[in-house]
């Protein structure tokens, strides 16, 4: 549609996207066929656990380095077609069956992503996701792993999976390790849990917050976000599919922007939620009433809030 073309042409950074779930649908179907496994459910999930199960099925398809390389090439090619000049993809390297160790996974993924970036003209950075359900030892190990790859393609640590029962404060020590290595800290918070988790993420020195939208339930937390300039990496369709809000019309992104909170727009898990990052801009305009000028501001905020090099930001902004 004309609208899609318009928002695709806007230079932007995609800061909230999980690598495995950015797989193309055709590629997924091909690999499911080759492996003789069922195609995972898409777009409709009875609950968050069933969503994580579908995500696990995508990870299971990535059982050879060749598949991982194809995934990276396609994700970066798609990003280029979406006007993405910088992509920060999140991944849980210790879940990869294609490699013996998480270290091996990153040794392969980082240069392969960088090469894809050069081919397609997109800057790439990796976020090492800590699985918040996997306990404190995993969190420290993931942070130490990420730290060893600081300056070699890893730009930050993230924190993913179900917030309920696993508060962000549990990752405080892991975040310290990341920060000492010069990495960013970009946890998921304020998605399945409320504004207190966004406040907690801010207290822990988060550089950005993935989702963070439930901050809207507490004006004091909204004010903390606005005055700090910490960017929320917002994914409206994800929030609707996972039942955080009943519809896009109920989503707080317009209110957060009105209140001066910096927000980038992302697709989170494009294959599982049936949207790419450009679709999210179009929906924000058409279904959430956000003006084109304000969405251009989100695109600028995404580039400015990214971990991309200063020279790229200067050229793109
Ligand atoms: N991992 C992938 N997508 C996620 C989401 N929306 N929330 C938490 N963890 C995730
Ligand atoms: Zn996410």
TrEMBL record:
Belongs to the metallo-dependent hydrolases superfamily. Adenosine and AMP deaminases family. PANTHER family: ADENINE DEAMINASE. It holds the Pfam family A_deaminase. InterPro entries: A/AMP_deam_AS (IPR006650), A_deaminase_dom (IPR001365), Ado/ade_deaminase (IPR006330), Metal_Hydrolase (IPR032466). GO terms for biological process: purine ribonucleoside monophosphate biosynthetic process. Its cofactor is Zn(2+). GO terms for molecular function: deaminase activity; hydrolase activity, acting on carbon-nitrogen (but not peptide) bonds, in cyclic amidines; metal ion binding. The keyword Zinc applies. This is Adenosine deaminase. Keywords: Hydrolase, Metal-binding, Zinc.
